[in-house]
Amino acid sequence: MLNRVDGTSPAAGATQALARFVAETVSLPATVELVARRCFVNIVANMVAGSADPEIGRLLMAHEALAGTPTATVLGVPKKVDPATAALVNSASGNILDFDDTHPATLIHPTAPILSAILPIAERDDASMADVLLAVALGGEVAIRVGRALGRDHYTAGWHITATCGTIGAAAAAAKMLRLGEGGVRDAIGIACSQAAGIAENFGSAAKTIGVGSAARNGLHAALYAKAGLAASPTALEGPKGYLRVTAVNSDAALITRGLGDDWESGDTSPKPYPTCVFLHPVIDGIFELRRALSNDVGIGRIVVTGHPLLLAVTDRALPEDGHEARLSLHHSVAVAWKRGRVGLDDLTNDAVHDRELRHLAGRVFAIADDAMSPEAARVRVETSDGKCHDVLVEAARGSVRRPLTYDELSNKCADLLARDGSPIVAPAALVSLCWQGASHADLQRILDLGAGRAA
């Protein structure tokens, strides 16, 4: 028998505090709801576009042998599947293009796993869009606060923080959608702590995407287990052998509860402007700025990028082998940005990484680590063949909290994603508009039907 924590006691820990926060919160500040809506619009478009990737098809095929009752939608796929498969595949589709969203302080991409965990419940039950956005925001808040408590040690040790914290946030969101009370939410979080995994060594491979998919499925399972009465330690996060101490030696559980309910960390989550690792965004902006100032056919001696050590740790991939690695390659992204004046999905394909001109320029890209640099900043220097140097410092990239995409920019991005080859969407702009404006359960069902290609 587990010892229970009295939820009313001042000594109640971080796990209990998060559970109470999730169970008792019934509405969102307007600014937080807007962020959740922006992330919803963005991830729905990513799910549809991502579903056309061949690896998503293989993922669906792999689950056919284990398929349950087909009651849940996979965006981009007309045929329904069982809820667990839908959660996994939608999350994988939402993340596979690296065009999702980011919380800058933790580097978590929260919305794909969290939204994917709750959609099967929302589709089955009479959930409104307000219910969905509330669960998305609460799940994001849980994931991000756990990420804050874990600190940079968790990430630098090699944990894939989107998959790990995403599992815990997805469990909390699914528990909210199931209308569990404080004890049920606490057990869902605790169960998720035993399922939260993912390693950075798999970046650039299909396994990275599977990890994000598994975060949604495992979070959904954790909430369903809790609903069925299965229990977990009430201190699964902060206990002596809890998730925080096991996966980050210098973790700080106090960061989970500091300002909880008043300061919404999830409000800093922003949709991406480029389909690459977020560390590359200020680099790309710097290249664009220098490209505008110089002639793009100027002779290049070399291009030197200075950034936080994490920039090199994640993106030092001089010769990516395929499109997945290209999205994590500093060298390829710099070459594409300079040569083509853009960095889009069509520039990050298997064909693009073997383009001779791009590979030649990529070989002239060098990187320097500087501990004093913010992970959100980058300094770019172009050294031309005439011996001149041209520098720019980008302190906040386009798409960051300080420079978020505008309504029109985000809407256009999503419409473009929905119109890509392989998309079943007949009227992309109409679906984007419904994602922005939808309110009722009927609107949510219409979004799912349109997004799956079951309606025109």
TrEMBL record:
<feature type="domain" description="MmgE/PrpD N-terminal">
    <location>
        <begin position="17"/>
        <end position="250"/>
    </location>
</feature>
<dbReference type="InterPro" id="IPR045336">
    <property type="entry name" value="MmgE_PrpD_N"/>
</dbReference>
<dbReference type="InterPro" id="IPR005656">
    <property type="entry name" value="MmgE_PrpD"/>
</dbReference>
<dbReference type="Pfam" id="PF19305">
    <property type="entry name" value="MmgE_PrpD_C"/>
</dbReference>
<dbReference type="GO" id="GO:0016829">
    <property type="term" value="F:lyase activity"/>
</dbReference>
<comment type="similarity">
    <text>Belongs to the PrpD family.</text>
</comment>
<dbReference type="InterPro" id="IPR045337">
    <property type="entry name" value="MmgE_PrpD_C"/>
</dbReference>
<dbReference type="InterPro" id="IPR042188">
    <property type="entry name" value="MmgE/PrpD_sf_2"/>
</dbReference>
<protein>
    <recommendedName>
        <fullName>MmgE/PrpD family protein</fullName>
    </recommendedName>
</protein>
<dbReference type="InterPro" id="IPR036148">
    <property type="entry name" value="MmgE/PrpD_sf"/>
</dbReference>
<dbReference type="Pfam" id="PF03972">
    <property type="entry name" value="MmgE_PrpD_N"/>
</dbReference>
<dbReference type="InterPro" id="IPR042183">
    <property type="entry name" value="MmgE/PrpD_sf_1"/>
</dbReference>
<feature type="domain" description="MmgE/PrpD C-terminal">
    <location>
        <begin position="274"/>
        <end position="420"/>
    </location>
</feature>
